[in-house]
């Protein structure tokens, strides 16, 4: 059991965190409870947004997204986790913000390596019971964020909640797991946007049995989201929850215009720098599922079905004005 320092010591150890441009992660301190806020002091009514960034080509978009999340009422803080160690300090200077009236502070944390495991490190700057982990090319509006958070809270914080779902499946001939998309079921939500409890950050980073799996994530530079789904499914005994809402995915390769960046509306080439654009991406993720199963000696992933949506209006169709519309549609 982790030792909990007395409250008076916590006040000395954890003063109010202000935005720091070049604060850094510390793997040695991440699992030391003395370096983290007392879980009993974490806010239950707000969340912290963790944006993973690496590509300098996405910095203008990242600046816009961080500012957009910072003004949402639900957000207590935005932490930009920057993994490109060669980026000049000047290129990141404009990202950090002290916040202000109606805006949460934005901090930039320069990671000590490009490890994707670092996006799940416990951090002293996280003062909320929930975090929203997202990529630097995804924008979720305030209403969708609030709805996803309410779904997470209604499940007691045990389930992962996301907006992008995938599935594991079994190749019977090869006797290996594969990474798939099914129209009727899912078992994985992606870190493109995922809400989870802060306690899962500690489980992911500090559970010794995951060290071999974390090494695989580092070797492949992939699959950290799959491993977090393993952790959550093992702890909760349940699958993730997919919610519906409005989300702008700038990095989807199906984008063909309508963004910002080239004068005509596009973010030039932004869809080509993501991990999912690499050759063999899907096979590699299937291999990760197979290896995680072998390393942990069990397959905890559970299937979920359906999507949680905000509205519960009637589904019946009626003819109005010569058109078929939902019966509760008001003219």
Automatic annotation (TrEMBL):
SUPFAM superfamilies: Nucleotide-diphospho-sugar transferases
Membrane-crossing segments per the record: none
A GO cellular-component term linked to this record: membrane
GO molecular-function terms, A-Z: glycosyltransferase activity
Signal peptide: 1-19
Keywords linked to the UniProt accession: Disulfide bond, Signal, Transferase
Domain Glycosyl transferase, chain residue ranges per copy: 47-308
Coiled-coil regions listed in the entry: none
Domain of life: Eukaryota
UniProt family annotation: Belongs to the glycosyltransferase 64 family.
Name of the protein in its database record: Glycosyltransferase family protein 64
Species for this entry: Canna indica
């Amino acid at each position: 059991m982790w030792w909990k320092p007395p409250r008076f010591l916590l006040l000395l150890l954890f003063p109010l965190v202000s935005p720091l441009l070049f604060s850094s992660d510390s793997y040695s301190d991440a699992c030391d409870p003395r370096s983290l806020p007392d879980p009993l002091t974490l806010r239950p009514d707000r969340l912290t947004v963790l944006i993973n960034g690496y590509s300098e080509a996405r910095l203008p978009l990242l600046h816009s997204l961080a500012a957009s999340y910072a003004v949402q009422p639900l957000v207590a803080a935005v932490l930009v986790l920057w993994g490109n160690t060669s980026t000049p300090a000047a290129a990141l200077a404009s990202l950090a913000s002290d916040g202000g009236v109606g805006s949460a502070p934005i901090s930039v944390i320069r990671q000590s390596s490009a490890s994707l495991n670092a996006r799940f490190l416990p951090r002293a700057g996280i003062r909320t019971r929930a975090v929203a982990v997202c990529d630097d090319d995804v924008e979720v509006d305030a209403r969708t964020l609030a709805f996803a958070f309410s779904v997470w809270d209604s499940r007691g914080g045990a389930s992962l909640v996301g907006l992008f779902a995938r599935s594991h499946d079994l190749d019977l001939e090869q006797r290996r797991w594969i990474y798939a998309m099914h129209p009727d079921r899912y078992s994985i939500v992606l870190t493109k946007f995922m809400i989870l409890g802060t306690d899962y950050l500690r489980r992911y980073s500090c559970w010794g049995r995951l060290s071999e799996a974390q090494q695989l994530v580092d070797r492949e530079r992939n699959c950290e989201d799959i491993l977090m789904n393993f952790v959550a499914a093992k702890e909760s005994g349940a699958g993730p929850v997919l919610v519906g809402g409005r989300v702008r995915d700038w990095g989807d390769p199906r984008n063909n215009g309508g963004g910002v960046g080239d004068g005509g509306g596009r973010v030039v080439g932004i869809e080509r720098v993501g991990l999912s654009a690499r050759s063999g991406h899907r096979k590699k993720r299937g291999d990760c599922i197979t290896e995680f199963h072998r390393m942990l000696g069990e397959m905890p992933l559970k299937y979920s079905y359906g999507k949680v949506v905000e509205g519960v209006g009637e589904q019946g169709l009626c003819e109005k004005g010569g058109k078929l519309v939902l019966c509760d549609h008001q003219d």
